Amino acid sequence: MKGGLKKVYFSVLALLSVFLYTSCEDPELDALMADYCDCISESRYNDTKHMECIEKMDSIKMKYEGKPRKINEVLKKTNECY
């Protein structure tokens, strides 16, 4: 019975880990940041896009204002743009 209980315990632990990992993902944030990163890439060759990129980031920051974990994710993803 001990071996069976261990299997159940590890199965529950594995499912919980998968759930926690996927629940942290935010497809909307991912899409907003992908759009921002694209803007940054385009602005390297087109100086007129700088203001557009700044406006995009301002709107992202406003959307996630008061949500420190989301803002932290924005900062991580911003670093990936460069």
Structure description:
By secondary structure, the protein is an all-alpha fold. The protein has one domain (2-81). The protein is 82% helix and 0% strand. It has 4 helices and no strands. The termini are far apart. The model is unreliable at 15-23 (pLDDT under 50).
Ordered list of secondary-structure elements with their pairings:
Layout: H1 2-23, H2 27-43, H3 50-63, H4 68-81
- Tell me the number of helical segments per DSSP (H or I, 4 or more residues long): 4
Q: What share of residues is helical? A: over 70%
Cα gyration radius (Å): 19 Å
Q: List the helices and strands in order.
A: HHHH
Mean residue pLDDT: 81
The number of E-state strands comes to: 0
Distance between the termini: 54 Å
Uncertain runs are: 15-23
Largest sheet, if any? none
- The structure class reads mainly alpha
* Whole-number total of structural domains: 1
> So what's the overall shape?
elongated
Q: Strand content of the residues, in percent?
A: under 5%
Keywords for this structure?
82 residues, mainly alpha
Question: Brief overview, please?
Answer:
The chain is mainly α. The chain has helices at residues 2-23, 27-43, 50-63, 68-81. Helix 2 runs antiparallel to helix 3 (50-63).
